[in-house]
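User: Fold this; tokens only.

Assistant: Input:
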Amino acid sequence: MKKELPHFKIGSAYGGTQEWCPTYWMNIGGCAAITACDCSIYFELYKNLHGLYPYDINAITQADYVDFAYVMEPYLKPRESGIDRLDIYIDGFSQFFSNHSAPDITLEPWEGTNNLEATKDIIIQQIDNGWPIPCLTLLHQHPAMEDYVWHWYIINGYEQFDSTLVVKTVTYGTWRWFDLATLWDTGKSPKGGLILFS
């Protein structure tokens, strides 16, 4: 069983990337805001919500996307410790929705301490219902996760192989598949987690 949500491209990039942002803090720590930008554009394109993206949704350019990242910045402002808790993300993004004509979207936390099997089920449920999933990884023991340490990214697809679930992650303008067991078992504390939309 395999399911991938549609996404958008900006030139050759799959979604946006904080690397386009010219200011120091957004460039090194804007990952939460970037996931929120990508999700907002997704909601405009595929969930029939309006008023979230203030530019031409049918011709998304890098310049407009960067401007949008700075619209999002006050809600998910980079900071020295990062947006390192799910509640900070939920509070900021919920305020953005409230201020941009989408107060009915709700966000709930799925803590990184939840077990793998329950997490598999919730990811399948969210993707099947057409919701991308912002994901926070803090510390991680596996070398393959090096680029995802203290980082927000999006899960927007899955494929099931018997008892194994692989998930499609989106960050830095590209995508990659991971075994969820590897991604979820960080071997470290504190844990991150998922944001669930409804």
